[in-house]
Write a structure and sequence with these properties.
- This protein is mainly beta and about 140 residues long.
- The chain has a single domain (about 1-140), classed as Immunoglobulin-like (Sandwich).
- The protein has one helix spanning about 1-20; strands at about 30-35, 40, 45-55, 60-70, 75-80, 90-95, 105-120, 125-140.
């Protein structure tokens, strides 16, 4: 079951990031997402990003999606994780390998989104609870 849940979270995270340019964020008062100042790169190229979030009132599945860019490396999705929109602050952590180009230790830019997929007829539409961009430092782990 945990593998199935992880796969669902990663799939939903990727879909949320793809939709981010199309739908503006509309965070309710008190909703937010943060990105930690440091991310990690493992020897195999896996990147781990983390932070915290607070969201409320989700009626559909919710998740935190993240992406990273660095120099000439365009934005790369870095996993997705399930979110609880219960009004309490929670930690998030996403890991994944960038597709195509490898990232290196040093300065990078992270985009993180707390999003819900809300049913609308037969479709699931993204409802953005919070998003943030932050310059970080990637370190070898």
């Amino acid at each position: 079951m945990p593998v199935r849940r992880s796969l669902l979270a990663a799939t939903l995270g990727g879909a949320a990031l793809l939709c981010a340019a199309a739908a503006p964020a509309a965070a309710a008062p008190g909703e937010y997402i943060t990105v930690d100042a440091t991310g990690r790169i493992a020897a195999d190229g896996t990147v781990t990003l983390s932070g915290s979030y607070r969201c409320t009132g989700a009626t559909g599945p919710a998740l935190v999606g993240s992406s990273v860019s660095q120099g000439t490396v365009r934005r790369q999705g870095i996993g997705g994780s399930a979110a609880r929109c219960d009004g309490v602050e929670h930690r998030w952590q996403n890991s994944g390998k960038p597709y195509g180009q490898a990232l290196r230790p040093g300065a990078a830019r992270v985009h993180a989104t707390a999003v819900e997929l809300r049913a609308s007829g037969i479709l699931l539409l993204p409802v953005f609870h919070a998003e943030a961009d932050r310059d970080i430092t990637l370190v070898q782990s």
